[in-house]
User: Fold these one by one.
Assistant:
Number 1:
Amino acid sequence: MPSSGLLLPPTARQEALRGSLSDENLGPGYLVGGMPFEAATAIWERLWTSRYPLAADAFDDGVWRQTRAAAMTRQHVELHPKHVWGLIGVDVDHPDAVLRMVSTVDNHPPPNVIIENPVNGHAHAAWAITTPINLTNYGSRRSVRYGLSIEEALRRAVGGDPHYPARLIKNPFHPRWMTHFIHDNTSTLDRLGGILTPAGHMPGRGWHNQRRRTPVGHSRNETLFHGVRHFAYREMRHHWGDPEGYRAAIAREVAIRNADFDTPLGVTELGHISTSITDWTIRYSRMWNDGPAAYDQAFRAIQAARGRKGSGRNGGLAGNSRPGGLIRGADRAVTSQAFREAVIWEARS
């Protein structure tokens, strides 16, 4: 059988190094269980759908998008595309990780692939979904929530790391890892839930709300970014003409909010978040670039529009049976229009 175009067959040196347990002398483990190289490659190419994936060796050196062929030379690769969720990943940081993952009787469905660190026994596992979940605004929110519940149940079943963001996974064909391909079948969410529910691993109904209150992993970054982003828009009025003072204020707010997490983010991640917010605001924000006069004019126009709309029954929407949603929608529309008019007025004056 001809070899895959994605990967080259193992070299003689790699074959000689197979099974080593030291960092200095590691060999590829993708034939664990006796599966031929071509068969293992075919399975991974079918399950792994990222066309231009994120990949990295040492995370401190950065993570960036690469071609599939280039990514497969890295130690870690993207688990699934950003907008299509086809593989559910779990990270188990225990020396008996593989044993936990293959002990499936009356506990959890077997994963498709297990990628093990032969030095400490820690491993990543992935389960393939029959119908990948659409993560865009056109997808089903119910499917996304159900998928997150399945992911949490699988994590609980094998004692996985709750802080694992499921963004990157160990490269199953990198010489540093030992990989166990278990099977190539996909599963529906209902089938996974049908096994995990009787085993008692599915989270309760209030789990999603608790997850938002105590974010972990990748959601900590998102929670911190969006919270400080809105703070930054208001804070700029105190720092006109003083970008360094503005940067210091945003960095301080990022550190304060990060301290509220049960497991705070590291200093490097905090620096990336604060720099991203301040750089964008200073370079591209009309509020910053137009100066305090335009900012004050826009603020007065917004407040005046809210005052005009706020008079009357149901905020000026008499007879509305569901005033809350319409009021919020009208408020956003009026606010946006008022801001646009104020900016145009300031530019022309």
Number 2:
Amino acid sequence: MRRLKERILRVLTLIAGLVGGAVAALVVACLLATWIITLVVEARYPPAGRRVAVEGGHLAVIEAGPGEGAPSRGTVVLLHGASANAMDPMLAIGRRLAGDGFRVLSFDRPGFGYSDRIAPDAASPAVQARLISEALASLKVGPALIVGHSWSGALATAIALDHPERVAGLALLAPVSHPWPGGSVGGYAAWYRSLPGRMLLTLATYTVAAPLGFAALDRFAEAVFRPQGLPEGYLDGARVPLVLRPATFAANLRDLDGLYGFLERQSPRYPAITAPTVIIAGDSDPVVKTDVHARALAREVPGAKLVVLPGVGHMLQYVAADTVVAEIEGLVARERVGVE
């Protein structure tokens, strides 16, 4: 009996060693794949603009239209949503606005694109608002029209509330503005807040997130664009794969995870916004519910104009670009923005 037990123990030890070795080999393979994907993505999508010094680091900005000091119709600042970067709104509407005579500045938010994360609490829209306001001061930009899409609805309104001297107008596109029923984000935020969840998610971020994400990017983008179709060339043109890099992927998760709590604190302050405001949303948005966010925000911001587009989803800056540009230019007509 003793010999049998010893044999069983040796077999189990061998099996455990083989399983452990296989798991370790898989982790190493995933780490290597993530490293290779990061190198390939950064080679494919190198920095497209310049970096502006702020306290603690740098923010990357893409510029179009008349340069600093040149005559323009005003300055428009574009702020991208979750999982994106500065090229996303620049591709959608920025170059068109530049062609219409505006100076356009599109920022990589902290931790995205080629901006440094800078601060340990940079997941907060209030911290990002401070950093972007500092960058605008460094660029000698006076009051500008701030355009925020999705997650950056919270950011743009934070700038208007905490740094009103930087804002001459707000254009909010499918904005996230209020706490939403349930408070979860994409099915992962609730479990990820636990210590085991954070540990597993950190491991996944540096191992399987990039390989699996690379394979699923087109399906993810298609879901965000529903009910409209995915524009041809969007993933490449908007440089979407940059979000797969581990540091950016982690920053994106933290930004989403902290958003609900931030909006609980900020949303009661919206009646204090004084900048002329237009809010544009689609009534078929599957990502950010218009009734919860855009309609509520329009009721609370004094004098805000609400434009709800029938049948349009979340990515209205692409699928309804004519309307978005017209509303931005109409806002400029209401209030002269950032004349240089």
